Amino acid sequence: MIDPRKPTLLRAAPRLLQILRVLARHKFLGALLGRTHWPAPQEVRETLEELGLIFLKFGQVLAMRGDLLPQAYVDELALLHDQLPAMDFEVVRATVEAELGRPLSQVFASFNEVPLGAATIAQVHEASLHDGRHVAVKVQRPGLQALIATDMAALNYLVALGESVFPSLRALDLPVVVREFATSLRRETDFNREARSVVLFRTAMADFPDLWIPDVVAECSSAAVLTLEFSAGERVDFYARQHPQAMPQAMNTLVRLMLQTIFEEGLFHADPHPGNVFVLPDGRLSLLDFGNTGELDEAMRESLTLLLESVVNGDARAATEAYLEMAPAGEDINRGALLVDIKTVLYEIRRTNLDNVSVGNALEALLRAGSRNGVHNPGEFVLLTRAFVILESMIRQLAPDHNYMDSFREQIARLRALHFAPERVKEKTGKLVRDIERLVMDAPGDTRRVLRRIAEGDLGSLPGLEALGGRFSRNLERLARAIAFAALVISGSLLLLTPMSGWHHTLGEVMIVGGIVGMVLSGIGAMRREKRQR
């Protein structure tokens, strides 16, 4: 939806000149040239607000990067607000009718012209459908895509120019930050994606009796209009003033939500602040605004699990390896210095009362250590760290006496037990066997096809090439069989280690015996083939 490369330099030039004038007036250019000091944090914030929507959002992204900027600037940028004047109602009407292809009165029985809130990307209106359903309608600001594309192009040109003239800026890794920023904007402006996220979270949270997520009204939604069930609740921070006794249970629910969606579904709400958490009249929590969500693949979830366990255990070397699996290293990474920095981080955590440890702050410290030593922190990891920081901040604000780490440890223990449950082990074993079977079936043919292409290419016909391919295929088959039998032995052992008895132990014993017998027979067969070849 947003391609910052599309606008040419000529088209972006007027906006680029306007940005440069603003930066010069606030003494940014003088600071780059070394003639003046950097502007004060407050002036930096005011400059970004003056530059408009995209730079305001960019400042909010920079506020998450405590690994790149001094804390004074991070604190000031965190004050950036995204509340803008509301759109004229006729603009809202025109957008809704163009997106949904029908007059507003045909879609909605009533539509409140005064918005519930107006932010940088969209504004929300209360409405009702002809079937009586109470809904909230999120309408995107018109012309947003063109504005974003032009400003992103200007921002890219500024970063490239700055790094070419001032090589010291390369330490800030700004091109990566800008690229991640563009990805974040794509998420927030794609209402179809937000609708899919709502459906995924509703499915994942179906067994949460004390949590409700409003459903999408698909027939009244599009890429720029999103209609949801109305959440007739009260902001959790307002509710906490009258019902402080309800907050510990509410915070436990949010902790469980965060951890379960991360480790079980690979999803997380990246902005769990009080304005997105409501309390319904029946006491249930309602989670809103899924425009900014993150996704973690299975490999990153495994690395995150190892990282958190290493942090708790104080194992700096294991934490370093797990961190580097999540955040690929740059060419100039200093592994020795990174290990020392992570040891320091873990030492500070270990010397603190574990009940007062902040997971978000610990992850932020790791991000800073990585950035200092050449690691390019991936956007999802930064987003996840920010989500933990926001959640912990809300817990401290609403339930200051609540032992957050008890909830955290309880949920980690539950997820670990679930991870090693017999059913999960069986499922993973089955997947591993299927993958190995596919490898065994496909590898010989794939190998021969590759070798045939080499033989028919510029290399010409090489003597013995087919024989070499045959030997390679047979060796690959043997290796695959060995891996499959070893997997049976390992999976059987895991089943025997589970606290459950009965058929789980019987199945484990059968798998171990089958794996060992298979390895013995494969070894005997290999020796016989070698003997015949002699």
What would you note in describing this structure?
This protein is an alpha+beta fold and 534 residues long. It has four domains: 9-82 and 147-188, no CATH class; 88-141 and 190-230, 2-Layer Sandwich (Phosphorylase Kinase, domain 1); 232-417, no CATH class; 422-533, no CATH class. It is 63% helix and 8% strand. The protein has helices at 9-25, 28-32, 41-51, 53-62, 71-77, 89-100, 104-107, 144-165, 174-189, 191-204, 236-242, 247-265, 298-313, 316-326, 335-350, 359-372, 379-398, 404-419, 422-456, 465-497, 503-533, and strands at residues 108-111, 117-118, 122-129, 134-140, 211-212, 225-229, 234-235, 267-269, 277-279, 285-287, 293-295. Strands 1, 2, 3, 4 and 6 form a five-stranded antiparallel beta sheet that branches. It has a four-stranded mixed beta sheet with strand order 5-10-9-7. Strands 8-11 form a two-stranded antiparallel ribbon. β3 and β4 (134-140) form a beta hairpin. The model is unreliable at 1-7 and 458-465 (pLDDT under 50).
